[in-house]
């Protein structure tokens, strides 16, 4: 294989060489994404979005065009990642200078039309977002805030809020994540012991569901309310 043509690009590259270039570029994208951290994937600020769009466009061009340079593509991917990490760090130190700030779209139950115009938010779009938030009735809403990453936060009026267990003088509800007890026919001994349970308790729960053979169980989980979920 002509490695110079492979790295710098050539119209005569074989299908195997094109596939290998795509794999290398894909691995570079994964490494760059890991460098950028969870913020890039979960919370997109303005510069995060631009970096993501730029990297995707760059990768598509390098993967489809055999005459494009793989070396320059990899260099640009990591430069993009470095710039994004730097801007994210500066965003943490000086958020008002780097990124946008939250914008209030409704206050005291009244729309702030100037802020909606500044943010280019249409009424139809806002109403759609409110429906997705489970807040379709405007009379129940006190405030709406447009967050820097494009989502809206809704604050309802006190009289529209649901009753809490504390207000009803009920004991607090146990909050815990579901715990895997069996996966693919094997007991998770660590989880079982951490929950203060033993094999006898687990086998009894399985027999109550008509399951006699542990190997038949694909997944068994202990949920927060004490229910044992079983899938065979």
TrEMBL record:
InterPro entries, per the entry: DUF421 (IPR007353), UPF0702_alpha/beta_dom_sf (IPR023090)
Keyword Coiled coil applies: no
Topology of this chain in the membrane: Multi-pass membrane protein
Keywords: Cell membrane, Membrane, Transmembrane, Transmembrane helix
GO cellular component, one term: plasma membrane
Family: Belongs to the UPF0702 family.
Name of protein: Uncharacterized membrane protein YcaP (DUF421 family)
Source taxonomy: Bacteria, Bacillati, Bacillota, Clostridia, Peptostreptococcales
């Amino acid at each position: 294989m002509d490695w110079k043509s492979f790295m710098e690009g050539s119209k005569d590259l074989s299908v195997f060489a094109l596939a290998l270039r795509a794999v290398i570029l894909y691995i570079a994208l994964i490494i760059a994404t890991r460098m950028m951290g969870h913020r890039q994937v979960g919370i997109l600020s303005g510069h995060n979005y631009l970096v993501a769009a730029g990297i995707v466009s760059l990768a598509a061009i390098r993967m489809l065009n055999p005459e494009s340079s793989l070396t320059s593509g990899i260099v640009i991917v990591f430069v993009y990642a470095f710039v994004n990490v730097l801007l994210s760090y500066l965003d943490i130190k000086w958020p008002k200078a780097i990124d946008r700030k939250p914008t209030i779209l409704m206050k005291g139950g009244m729309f702030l039309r100037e802020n909606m115009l500044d943010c280019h938010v249409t009424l139809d779009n806002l109403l759609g977002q409110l429906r997705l938030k489970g807040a379709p009735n405007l009379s129940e809403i006190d405030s709406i805030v447009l967050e820097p990453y494009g989502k809206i936060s809704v604050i309802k009026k006190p009289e529209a809020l649901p009753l809490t267990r504390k207000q009803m003088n009920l004991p607090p509800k146990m909050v815990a994540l579901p715990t895997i007890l069996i996966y693919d026919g094997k007991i998770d001994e660590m989880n079982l012991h951490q929950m203060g349970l033993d094999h006898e308790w687990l086998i009894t729960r399985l027999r109550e569901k008509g399951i006699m053979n542990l190997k038949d169980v694909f997944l068994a989980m202990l949920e927060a309310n004490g229910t044992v979920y079983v899938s065979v």
